[in-house]
Amino acid sequence: MSKSKQAIGLGYNGSNAPSVVAKGFDGLAEQIIDLAKANGVLVHEDPELANSLAQLDVGEEIPRDLYVIIAELIAFAYLLDGRFPEHWTMPEGRFFGQA
């Protein structure tokens, strides 16, 4: 038996923690994913994380125990998009395969 597809969209408005802004399963999940991709939003596939986030309602903030993983995903998304914190400099040495 195949599992249903799920999508959970997170947003951050600058206060407190990121919260669930979209949530759907099966066909609605496909629509959420397609809309995210069409708008340049990073889509990260992680069934375990998705299962944890699927327990939340739309508008609910992520729990404290997910702060680190979500922060790492946001930081990685910014890096992929070429955005860096103000006054940040590239560390010396290897970075993504560069010498």
Automatic annotation (TrEMBL):
UniProt record similarity statement: Belongs to the type III secretion exporter family.
- Is Protein transport among the key words of this record? yes
User: Is the keyword Protein transport in the record?
Assistant: yes
Alphabetically sorted, this entry's keywords are: Bacterial flagellum protein export, Cell projection, Cilium, Flagellum, Protein transport, Transport
> What name does this protein carry?
Flagellar biosynthetic protein FlhB
Pfam short name (any one)? Bac_export_2
Task performed by this protein: Required for formation of the rod structure in the basal body of the flagellar apparatus. Together with FliI and FliH, may constitute the export apparatus of flagellin.
Lineage from the top down? Bacteria, Pseudomonadati, Pseudomonadota, Gammaproteobacteria, Alteromonadales
Q: Which PANTHER family match?
A: FLAGELLAR BIOSYNTHETIC PROTEIN FLHB
Its GO CC terms are:
plasma membrane
Q: What InterPro entries would the database entry show? A: T3SS_substrate_exporter, T3SS_substrate_exporter_C
One GO biological process term:
protein secretion
